């Protein structure tokens, strides 16, 4: 077979695999059908938070465990020649690596300030139409900073909830959390 045809077939296989992955991930998320509630809804630095994960499966689904990640991220904009410009906060709940983005008028840097991880063991099949609530207790890190969306330095918190589903891509939920000052 011609090498060019092999390259084209390889590219088509990669694209098809990527599309299939995202379709399965979407199906897994829809099957889990979950919502997350925090108490208190806007915790303080260092505070313990009760997390209630309400799952109302639309199909029978096996869940091994639920991973919770609470992450504080910093975004700083540095304009060229001392210019300053405020840009919208981008909080990527699923990417844990520090990132750097370039803009024509300056540079935006993203860094993880602190991160906490917890696991809720499930280890069973959840039945369609039978809602369940899973509880967890998490701690807002004392190393974090309060949420701040003003100016060139912004701080944001995000909670990621990942359902480990065997033989399928994990179902993932994410939400922004407003964290207040300790005092």
Instruction: Give the total of beta strands.
Output: 8
Please state roughly what percent of the residues sit in beta strands, choosing from under 5%, 5-15%, 15-25%, 25-35%, 35-45% or over 45%: over 45%
| Element string (H = helix, E = strand) | HEEEEEEEE
Named CATH topology: Immunoglobulin-like
Secondary-structure content class? alpha+beta
Give the overall shape: flat
- Physical arrangement of strands within the biggest beta sheet: 4-5-3-7-8
Helix content: 10-25%
Whole-Å distance between the termini? 70 Å
Number of helices: 1
Instruction: Examine the secondary-structure arrangement and name the CATH architecture.
Output: Sandwich
Name of the top-level CATH class: Mainly Beta
What composes the largest sheet? 5 strands, antiparallel
Contiguous low-pLDDT stretches (5 residues minimum) are 19-26, 81-104
Number of separate structural domains: 1
Radius of gyration: 20 Å
Q: What number is the mean pLDDT?
A: 78
Q: Could you explain how this protein is built, in words?
A:
By secondary structure, the protein is of the alpha+beta class. It has a single domain (3-177), classed as Immunoglobulin-like (Sandwich). It has one helix at 3-32; strands at residues 34-39, 48-55, 61-79, 99-103, 106-126, 132-139, 153-164, 171-177. The strands form two sheets. Strands 4-5-3-7-8 form a five-stranded antiparallel sheet. Strands 1-2-6 form a three-stranded antiparallel sheet. A hairpin with an 8-residue loop joins strand 1 (34-39) and strand 2 (48-55).
């Amino acid at each position: 077979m011609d090498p060019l045809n092999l390259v084209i077939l390889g590219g088509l296989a990669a694209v098809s695999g990527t599309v299939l992955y995202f379709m399965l991930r979407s199906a897994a998320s829809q099957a889990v059908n979950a919502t997350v509630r925090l108490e208190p809804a806007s915790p303080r630095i260092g505070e313990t938070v009760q997390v209630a994960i309400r799952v109302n499966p639309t199909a029978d689904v096996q869940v091994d465990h639920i991973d919770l990640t609470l992450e504080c991220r910093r975004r700083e904009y540095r304009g060229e020649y001392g210019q300053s410009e405020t840009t919208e906060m981008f909080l990527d709940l699923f990417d844990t690596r520090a990132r750097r983005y370039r803009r024509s008028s300056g540079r935006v840097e993203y860094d993880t300030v602190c991160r906490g991880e917890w696991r809720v063991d499930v280890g069973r099949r959840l039945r369609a139409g039978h809602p369940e609530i899973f509880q967890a207790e998490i701690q807002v890190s004392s190393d974090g900073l309060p949420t701040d969306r003003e100016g060139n330095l912004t701080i944001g918190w995000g909670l990621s909830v990942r359902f480990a589903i065997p033989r399928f891509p994990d179902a993932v939920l994410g939400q922004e959390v407003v964290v207040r000052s300790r005092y």
